[in-house]
Structure to design on (216 residues):
């Protein structure tokens, strides 16, 4: 089992990811700007520990960052010198309120490429979990959704894909980090679909992938 920090683990997406990882038996530390808030969430989920963000990221196998787009730069800057050789998973989607149903990718091309700038070229950066509903993750039921995983580091990408079955979701390699832009943009479309079709957390599912992992 892996030692994993979930930075932003008190937020909706972070908490949902942490819940699934704890249930899968991983040693999960909840990170937050407020250690007190992290403690409350850690106790609720039965996580292994809690800490302020930088301390939570120290010495982990995997560091998952689940914060709003507006907080991405500050949060990654906070943990940059603490992650070492950990696989850093950025979940950021470039949503710009109030027009969250409209694709608004940043000038760099994606939140993933912004993350690369904040963490530096040597970081083992992966992006994932853009298109799965936070409230579905923060539950015990099966999730009818695939998770696309992007990275230029093939082994780091595989590490995150392999975490997914234990979380009750299917992880699929989406290729290079630059491809993350497609999943980031798709989030705004899914929000639109939710509203237009009164959906409860619309997701995506890829078909005819004969060699893909089995659907949980």
């Amino acid at each position: 089992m892996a030692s994993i920090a979930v930075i932003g683990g008190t937020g909706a997406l972070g908490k949902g990811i942490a819940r699934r990882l704890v249930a899968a038996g991983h040693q999960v530390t909840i990170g937050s700007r407020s250690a007190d808030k992290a403690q409350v969430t850690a106790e609720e989920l039965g996580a292994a520990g809690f800490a302020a963000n930088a301390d939570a990221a120290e010495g982990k196998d995997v560091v998952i960052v689940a914060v709003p787009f507006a907080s991405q730069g500050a949060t990654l800057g906070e943990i940059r010198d603490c992650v070492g050789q950990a696989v850093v998973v950025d979940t950021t989607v470039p949503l710009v309120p109030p027009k969250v149903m409209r694709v608004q990718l940043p000038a760099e091309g994606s939140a993933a490429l912004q993350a690369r700038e904040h963490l530096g070229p040597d970081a083992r950066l992966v992006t994932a979990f853009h298109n799965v509903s936070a409230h579905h993750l923060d539950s015990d039921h099966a999730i009818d959704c695939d998770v696309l995983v992007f990275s230029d580091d093939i082994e780091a990408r595989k590490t995150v894909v392999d975490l997914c079955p234990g979380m009750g979701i299917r992880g699929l390699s989406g290729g290079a980090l630059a491809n993350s832009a497609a999943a980031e943009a798709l989030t705004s479309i899914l929000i639109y679909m939710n509203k237009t079709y009164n959906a409860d957390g619309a997701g995506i599912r890829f078909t005819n992938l004969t060699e893909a992992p089995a659907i949980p």
User: Anything to note?
Assistant: The radius of gyration is 16 Å.
